[in-house]
């Protein structure tokens, strides 16, 4: 399959199948193939004590569950997006790292916000959080998209001088969806927003407005916490887009809060 595919991870859970639905629709919208991957492992405390010594049985069980997860996801994607080119691949190794590696040359990497098995328990956090912090391509974490009406794409702008990748992704999505775009910047503190902050955001936005003249675009600079603002906007946005510096792979307080509380899909776009 060509490298520029939409890649989505599944573990058979309903959360991950909603991510498959979203990824299939996105692949169809972009005219790209869909690659479904599954990397599952049984954590020691989930394996019955009497079965732990039987490594062959455990390995067979993992393979069987992974195969069934892929079959179910591929069937669902084919129903939701007839005519879509679909590939399904099992992955080996620790789930989070394997999924990130599978998306190394992807157009985007899509995961659910929660799941079963290894998706719910990792020493350093969930698979979705790991993917959002380490993926080399845009990563989309799907949080019950059925609860959010399609429409406006919201782009959170932390620094108007360093938001090119996030705005590019946001405008592309808005153009594909025939939706409007809102660029938002949170100004720290409770005082009035200085005029310079609005001018800086307008200047950053103007370049992409010229490139995507068919996308209605607006901007807001409001005082307050960025995470709270983005979570609130996610209740009426079809997609929220935020940037991530590739050199800063820590937890990220804004990213963490938005991923925990947003009402719909969140795209995390790496930048230099």
What form results from the Cα inertia axes?
A: elongated
Proportion of residues in extended strands: 15-25%
CATH fold-type name of the largest domain: Rossmann fold
The strand line-up of the biggest sheet is: 3-2-1-4-5-10-9-6-7-8
Helix content: 25-40%
Index terms:
272 residues, alpha/beta, 2 domains, Rossmann fold, 10 strands
Please describe what this structure looks like.
By secondary structure, the chain is of the alpha/beta class. It folds into 2 domains: 6-142, 3-Layer(aba) Sandwich (Rossmann fold); 146-271, 3-Layer(aba) Sandwich (Rossmann fold), CATH 3.40.50. It has helices at residues 14-30, 55-80, 95-102, 127-134, 164-177, 195-211, 226-234, 253-261, and strands at residues 6-9, 34-38, 86-90, 108-112, 139-142, 153-156, 181-187, 217-223, 239-245, 266-271. It is elongated, with a radius of gyration of 19 Å.
List the helices and strands and how they pair.
Layout: E1 6-9, H1 14-30, E2 34-38, H2 55-80, E3 86-90, H3 95-102, E4 108-112, H4 127-134, E5 139-142, E6 153-156, H5 164-177, E7 181-187, H6 195-211, E8 217-223, H7 226-234, E9 239-245, H8 253-261, E10 266-271
Parallel strand pairs: 1-2, 1-4, 2-3, 4-5, 6-7, 6-9, 7-8, 9-10
Antiparallel strand pairs: 5-10
What would you say about this model in short?
With 272 residues, the chain is of the alpha/beta class. The chain has helices spanning 14-30, 55-80, 95-102, 127-134, 164-177, 195-211, 226-234, 253-261, and strands spanning 6-9, 34-38, 86-90, 108-112, 139-142, 153-156, 181-187, 217-223, 239-245, 266-271. A ten-stranded mixed sheet has the order 3-2-1-4-5-10-9-6-7-8, with helices on both faces.
């Amino acid at each position: 399959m060509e490298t520029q595919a939409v890649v989505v991870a599944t573990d058979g859970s309903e959360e991950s199948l909603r991510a498959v639905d979203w990824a299939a629709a996105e692949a169809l919208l972009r005219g790209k193939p869909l690659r479904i991957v599954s990397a599952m492992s049984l954590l020691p405390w989930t394996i019955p004590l009497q079965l732990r010594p039987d490594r062959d049985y455990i390995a067979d069980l993992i393979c069987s569950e992974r195969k069934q997860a892929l079959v179910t996801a591929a069937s669902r994607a084919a129903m939701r997006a007839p005519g879509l080119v679909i590939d399904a691949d099992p992955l080996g190794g620790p789930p989070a790292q394997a999924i990130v590696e599978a998306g190394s040359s992807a157009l985007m990497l899509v995961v659910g916000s929660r799941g079963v098995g290894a998706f719910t328990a990792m020493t350093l956090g969930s698979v979705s959080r790991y993917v959002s912090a380490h993926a080399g391509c845009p990563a989309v974490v799907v949080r019950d998209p059925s609860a959010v009406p399609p429409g406006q794409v919201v782009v959170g702008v932390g620094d108007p001088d360093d938001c090119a990748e996030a705005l590019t992704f946001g405008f592309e999505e808005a153009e594909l969806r025939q939706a409007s775009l809102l660029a938002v910047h949170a100004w720290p503190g409770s005082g009035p927003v200085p005029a310079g902050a609005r001018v800086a955001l307008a200047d950053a936005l103007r370049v992409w407005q010229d490139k995507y003249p068919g996308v209605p675009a607006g901007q807001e600079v409001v005082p307050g916490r960025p995470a709270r603002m983005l979570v609130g906007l996610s209740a009426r946005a079809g997609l929220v887009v935020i940037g991530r510096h590739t050199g800063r792979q820590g937890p990220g307080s804004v990213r963490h809060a938005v991923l925990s509380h947003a009402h719909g899909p969140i795209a995390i776009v790496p930048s230099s």
